[in-house]
Amino acid sequence: MIRSENIRLFFIGLGIVAIQIVLLRHLEIMGAESDLVLIFILWLATKKNRTEVLLYAAFLGFLQDALTDLWGLNMFSKTVLVFILYGYLNRISQNKLLFRQVFLIVLVAALIHNVIFYGVSLFTELYSPGFFIWSLLIVSSLFTAIVGSFLYLVREDN
User: Fold this and answer.
1) CATH of the domain at 23
2) Structural domains in the chain (count)
3) Rounded distance, CA 146 to CA 125, Å?
4) What pairs with residue 29 in β-bridges?
5) pTM above 0.85, yes or no
6) Region for residue 130 given its phi and psi (left: phi exceeds 0; alpha: psi -120 to 50; beta: otherwise)
7) Shortest CA distance to 43 belongs to which of 153, 148, 150, 141?
8) Residue 158 forms part of a structural domain
9) What are phi and psi of 138, to 5 degrees?
10) Mean pLDDT across the chain
11) Which residues contact 122 (CB under 8 A, 6 or more apart)?
């Protein structure tokens, strides 16, 4: 059912993908970038039911892939991540979390996402191994966790 809240979240998701593509692709640390779309999907997993979050993850991942010419890597990894972590994220959403807890949750989620992303990219031979592993798995996961933790600190519903 299409509700005004779903339409609002859809446009917020489109804006986040646009911010990811236009701004965050150019803000790199050691060749790694933060994944704002992943942070948005993790937040959605604490607020919505599994089917809605899977649809958002698939659509936003596909849109991110289409704009970055990755064709399916983000869509697959974000959808599988929702399958893996939804139960845990939905269960802990009732609790007030500390900064370090949020950092660890986002870090683990980003690591899982990046491992899935890297595993699928091995099959497509899109990236060469080596520096990419270090950049994607470690630096990108840490960068995403720092950005996600900061966004948790400045969120509206304190």
Assistant:
1) 1.10.1760
2) 1
3) 29
4) 32
5) yes
6) left
7) 148
8) no
9) -95, -60
10) 86
11) 129
